[in-house]
Specification:
Length: 280
């Protein structure tokens, strides 16, 4: 069956208040089946997730719905959320804060999704530490994410999507794509953009006015552009009796509407062909 996956860092409540509505309109046009959101704000009296998926037919879960405690800074920077075309079951929420990366309020959500006529798959909405110098923490975080997959893996290939704050040449991403080991561990996921994307696929860029101020504050270098948002697909190694082929990958939320940019990140859309039967 055909499956469309979207990931987007929605930049919490910063910027123009019309942004959330613009993201909602584009989600309706894209009609995704699985969505990974980062930096989604939720409070006792307001849910940005509800606004994002209004009238999309998607079922949503915010990390605050399942966490027992609220991580520091979540009221300002939001948390992770997930949305699926079919009702899902939350398997685990993973808090990846570490002693050297304790300012990350965005947890990772793992849900089981039954696909009609196929089987169940595990969908993980993920994020890792944002600081430029935090690659060591990101390495440990991606190993924890793959352990999360191993604990809850379903018959269909696992899909992991989110903002990883690392470029394809970083050790954390090389580990996920099977190009290097970490701590004697190795795995293999397919990077949807590497398989089917065209061009550099930059998702955090000075070309986006919403990102310019953050890039100016954090990076302080001109012409900064990075690909840090990904859709990863489980490989034959972990799912020998099923298949998931990446048919297309493209950017989304990468154009202004009436002068308003939807977020400080561009999103990624991946179209997959997934089956409980192995490919020929």
């Amino acid at each position: 069956m055909r499956l469309r996956v979207v990931t987007l860092n929605v930049w919490n409540r910063q910027g123009d208040p019309k942004r959330t509505g613009l993201i909602n309109l584009e989600l309706r046009r894209l009609a995704p089946d699985l969505v990974s959101f980062q930096e989604v704000v939720k409070s006792p009296d307001h849910s940005q997730l509800d606004e994002l998926i209004h009238d999309t037919g998607l079922y949503g879960t915010h990390q605050a719905d399942v966490l027992r405690t609220v991580p520091p800074h979540a009221d300002r920077f939001g948390g992770s959320a997930i949305a699926t075309r079919w009702p899902h079951r939350v398997e685990e929420v993973l808090d990846l804060r570490m002693s050297d990366a304790n300012d990350v309020p965005w947890c990772s959500l793992a849900v089981s999704v039954p696909l009609p006529g196929e089987d169940d798959l595990l969908f993980i909405a993920a994020t890792t530490s944002w600081r430029l110098s935090a690659e060591s923490a990101r390495e440990r975080q991606v190993v924890a994410l793959t352990d999360l997959d191993a604990r809850h893996r379903r018959p269909l290939p696992t899909i992991i999507a989110g903002d990883f704050n690392a470029t394809p040449d970083a050790a954390s991403i090389r580990y996920l794509t099977g190009l290097q080991s970490l701590g004697g561990r190795s795995v293999k996921y397919h990077d949807a953009w590497e398989v089917a994307g065209e061009g550099q696929g930059y998702t955090w860029s000075v070309d986006n006015p919403n990102a310019q101020s953050e890039i100016g504050r954090i990076v302080r270098q001109p012409r900064h552009r990075r690909r840090v948002d990904y859709v990863f697909v489980g490989s034959w190694d972990a799912h020998p009796n099923a298949s998931c082929e990446v048919q297309a990958a493209s950017l989304a939320f990468d154009l202004a509407v009436d002068g308003i940019w939807p977020s400080d990140h561009f999103g990624v859309v991946a179209d997959l062909e997934i089956s409980a039967a192995p490919s020929a």
